[in-house]
Amino acid sequence: MAHGTPEGLEYRGSIFDKCYAVTKADQLRNTGIYPYFRAIQESEGPEVIMEGRKIVMAGSNNYLGLTTHPQVKEAAIKAIEQYGTSSSGSRFLTGTLDLHNELEMKLAKFIGKEAALLFSTGYQTSQGVLFPLVGRSDYIFSDHENHASIVAGMLLARGALNAPVVRYHHNDMEDLEKRLQRVPAKAGKIIVTDGVFSTFGDIVPLDQLCSLAKKYHAQVLIDDAHSFGVLGEGGRGTANHYGLNHEVDLVFSTFSKTLASIGGFVAGEKRVIDYLKHESSAFMFSCSPSASATAAALAALHVLQTEPELIRKLHFNAKVIRTGLQQMGYDVPDGQTAIVPVLLYDDAKACQLWQGLYDEGIFVNVFIAPAIPPGRAMLRTSLMASLEGSHLSRILEAYKKIGKRLRII
Ligand SMILES: Cc1ncc(COP(=O)(O)O)c(C=O)c1O
């Protein structure tokens, strides 16, 4: 104990010590394969320039390829000319643009809900919707594989309010029911789930989940980040895909995928949206989405509604890659979304396959522990409508060549 330091308060080291210890990132860098933070120098959509080389993009969430659509780019540029580069304030005060109101109205109408509210990112949306809705004695039921932003919202509710948080096994409706049975019948309950799960691209069994919600008087919240523009009639999302629009209380999503921008929104009953507008600190105390981001999302929503062939092309592209990889012998589950997971179960193998594909000019995403549980390493290939036949052939040829070389197939 240092001289004069009260007992129990002796100096045990800096909180930064952990930063100087060997981290997971150091371990990965030491293997010579570090697949993260690769900078894009230019992007035409399906092809990007990375480290001076042209690379086929097979890892983006730009599902309909709208980030480079002429109408979307033009709308963003015009908005900068009209409103400048930032709204410079919260919606509550000086940050509301007519564009925000227009987008909220159009999103609500498209989704089939009474009202919508914009947030500055998808991550903030999940947090900003969940936290203000739960009270001390309300229960949140959340799928084990829900996105990190939902987990953050739940932990905030648990930390700040001591709200009970219950995580059920992934897409396991028997487990969910068992857990619903255990809580007081009169307690408020929210069931929150991704519509399409962001890592493996599987879909929630929403019909069963909504039946349970009805039986146990719970509200249903869906994160449609990977379903908006992908599933349902005209890309209206998971609830529409199941014909259960009225059974889902709140739908939230991001602009960073199909809507080719940055921001997020929640859609639902007018009174609930109005409540969030005045109670959600993630909404109230954060700068509103910029005019260019909002105008880009508005234009992307317009393209989504006027060029429905893009959704068909996206599904065609996903099917070509999924069946092509399955036929080669890769472990690829069946699916109906734009995410095609290649299961490898081994971190080193996943990193080697990633590097081989990158050297062949193909970019996909690699998921290893701790991002996913140990032993579940995988590559996430995600498709875009803007990929042409020649790109699909290059993706499949590269997977074949490297998979054989590494004896994966
Ligand atoms: C399911 C899901 N929800 C929320 C988000 C967060 O969205 P954003 O990137 O707009 O913050 C993501 C982003 O990857 C996601 O996959």
TrEMBL record:
Pfam family for this entry, one: Aminotran_1_2
Domain Aminotransferase class I/classII large: 59-397
SUPFAM superfamilies per the UniProt record, alphabetical: PLP-dependent transferases (SSF53383)
Organism domain of life: Bacteria
Record has Lyase as a keyword: no
GO MF annotations in UniProt: pyridoxal phosphate binding; transaminase activity
Cofactor: pyridoxal 5'-phosphate
Zinc recorded as keyword: no
Gene3D superfamilies, alphabetized: Aspartate Aminotransferase, domain 1, Type I PLP-dependent aspartate aminotransferase-like (Major domain)
Keywords: Aminotransferase, Transferase
PANTHER family named in the record: CLASS II AMINOTRANSFERASE/8-AMINO-7-OXONONANOATE SYNTHASE (PTHR13693), LD36009P (PTHR13693:SF3)
Protein name: Aminotransferase class I/II-fold pyridoxal phosphate-dependent enzyme
Biological source species: Xanthocytophaga agilis
